[in-house]
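FORM 12-B: Structure-to-Sequence Request
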């Protein structure tokens, strides 16, 4: 592939062979995800301490640019819950002018990361850290919505978690029962409607239904109009934020946090899109697009943007085929802003708070906590410290401290992999079942080996080596004899690989794990993903298990035997 081809946006590649059928599918998907994004964009704007239209401007400008210039075929970009807490903190400390400068700086950082091929550096954030601050952000988002959900009359609510919860508890007696009824009804619709039909977005039904209901009855509840004076029609004029050199250094840590968070969130979303659609994204092109989008967003009154996992998944389920669907999603929001902006003033804040409660729950990855607490005490400590600092301090401090702890843990684990032992007769005898040289590997088996520590920062190598699963036979043995260390990120990578193989009709066997990796595989819920019968002590037992599987299920067919390699990879 030529250098120019490597940097082409995915939209350009797709338009070379674009068809009328593709446009029909993209049109339907774009309209669907545009409607899903409408209440979310406004809710994220309000929760971030800015106006609802700022969220819409971000979804339109940044969302359109991410789809048009990005390296993912299905990615949908815009404001997300991950940014709510940090954006609100920046606005509280530096104002909207400071936020605009932070977003510009973050955009420049993202573009540089992509152009210098530093997108791979994002993978060096370990899983306990990402889970810790994701849990913390979700809890903080939920806490910021309690006031509007209950309609409390509290005046100004503190930005810090403990003082905020203290004020909310003190004013619990001021609950507005009409607002609570609207919130509860909205929450019920958002949660229950998808169980009836997935074709109609529950958030749209809740927003429209509760807005009409509240307006007809004249309920005494707070709305977008009563708090923000409504939403202006159309996009604002292009304007350059005021640039003050003396603000660069104070804002640099926040900009770096926004850039790293945008990179992690967008690339994670792109990976999810790849797994759902069978495509493969270009990380560096995607980061450049994220940089351009974040640089452009504040010029039109927007806030930071990144890839949105839920909207990306909605886009794929709605039948999208190319990035044109993402552009149509942005155009859909623009048309709504031009035509129906005056009507937004009637939308109850209680409904938007209910939507954000669901967002907070879904983004929290709460089930992952069960896996984390079954890991080593060091992994649990990294997660707990990151979570606590996210909630009680701020996201910048949480990520910095979490990364320092993870780096120290990485150094410790690497040091533990070095051993000096004598070679004895017992050592030689115990090693014979692990030796490959005298083993016959049948045609329906391929053996992968992991050599060295399989920790955060190295797991992408497994993805790269197994991109095309169609080239693999029915049984894949991963030999762990030379894998010296394993952590939560590596364990998660093996879980994802097991799911991919199972989805493709193949079976994963693990064999030869040494002490530390073997203990981690046993302590975590990994058995649920692969089955205890598929974790073997050595390659000899793994090959025997493969023969049993082939005898029971017949592999992938004898006629395909010639298509697969007989050697270990």
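FORM 12-B RESPONSE
SEQUENCE OUT:
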């Amino acid at each position: 592939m030529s250098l120019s081809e490597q940097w082409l946006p995915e939209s350009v590649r797709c338009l070379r062979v674009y068809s009328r059928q593709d446009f029909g599918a993209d049109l339907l998907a774009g309209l669907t995800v545009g409607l899903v994004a409408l209440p979310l964009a406004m809710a994220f704007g309000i929760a971030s301490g800015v106006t609802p239209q700022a969220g819409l401007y971000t979804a339109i400008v940044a969302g359109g640019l991410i789809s048009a210039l990005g390296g993912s075929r299905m990615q949908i970009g815009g404001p997300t819950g991950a940014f709510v807490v940090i954006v609100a903190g920046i606005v509280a400390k530096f104002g909207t002018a400071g936020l605009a400068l932070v977003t510009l700086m973050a955009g420049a950082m993202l573009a540089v990361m992509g152009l210098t091929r530093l997108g791979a550096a994002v993978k060096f954030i370990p899983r306990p850290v990402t889970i810790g601050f994701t849990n913390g952000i979700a809890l903080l988002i939920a806490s910021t919505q309690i006031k509007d959900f209950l309609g409390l009359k509290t005046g100004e609510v503190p930005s810090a978690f403990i003082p905020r919860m203290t004020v909310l508890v003190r004013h619990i007696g001021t609950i507005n029962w009409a607002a609570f009824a609207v919130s509860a009804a909205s929450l019920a619709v958002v949660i229950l409607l998808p169980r009836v039909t997935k074709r109609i977005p529950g958030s749209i039904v809740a927003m429209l239904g509760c807005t009409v209901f509240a307006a007809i009855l004249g309920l005494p509840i707070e709305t977008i109009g009563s708090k923000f004076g409504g939403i202006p029609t159309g996009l604002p004029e292009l304007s350059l934020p005021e640039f003050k050199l003396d603000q660069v250094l104070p804002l640099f840590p926040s900009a770096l946090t926004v850039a790293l968070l945008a990179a992690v969130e967008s690339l994670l979303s792109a990976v999810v899109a790849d797994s759902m659609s069978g495509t493969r994204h270009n990380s560096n092109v995607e980061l450049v697009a994220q940089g351009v989008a974040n640089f452009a967003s504040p010029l039109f009154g927007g806030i930071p943007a990144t890839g949105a996992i839920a909207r990306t998944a909605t886009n794929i389920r709605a039948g999208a085929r190319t990035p044109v669907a993402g552009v149509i999603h942005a155009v859909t929001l623009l048309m709504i802003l031009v035509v129906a902006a005056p009507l937004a003033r009637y939308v109850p804040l209680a409904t938007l708070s209910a939507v954000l409660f669901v967002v907070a729950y879904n983004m929290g990855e709460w089930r992952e906590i069960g896996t984390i607490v079954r890991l080593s005490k060091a992994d649990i400590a990294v997660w707990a410290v990151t979570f606590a600092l996210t909630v009680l301090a701020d996201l910048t401090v949480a990520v910095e401290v979490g990364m320092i702890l993870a780096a120290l843990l990485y150094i410790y684990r690497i040091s533990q992999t070095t051993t000096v032992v004598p070679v004895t007769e017992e050592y030689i005898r115990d090693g014979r079942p692990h030796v490959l040289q005298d083993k016959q590997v049948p045609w329906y088996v391929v053996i992968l080996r992991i050599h060295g520590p399989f920790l955060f920062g190295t797991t992408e190598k497994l993805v790269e080596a197994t991109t095309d699963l169609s080239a693999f036979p029915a049984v894949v043995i991963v030999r762990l004899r030379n894998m010296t260390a394993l952590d939560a990120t590596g364990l998660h990578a093996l879980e994802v690989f097991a799911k991919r193989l199972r989805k493709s009709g193949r079976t994963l066997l693990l064999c030869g794990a040494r002490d530390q990796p073997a203990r981690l595989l046993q302590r975590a819920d990994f058995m649920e993903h692969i089955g205890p019968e598929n974790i073997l002590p050595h390659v000899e037992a793994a090959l025997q298990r493969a023969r049993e599987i082939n005898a029971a299920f017949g592999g992938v067919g004898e006629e395909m035997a010639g298509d697969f390699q007989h050697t270990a990879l």
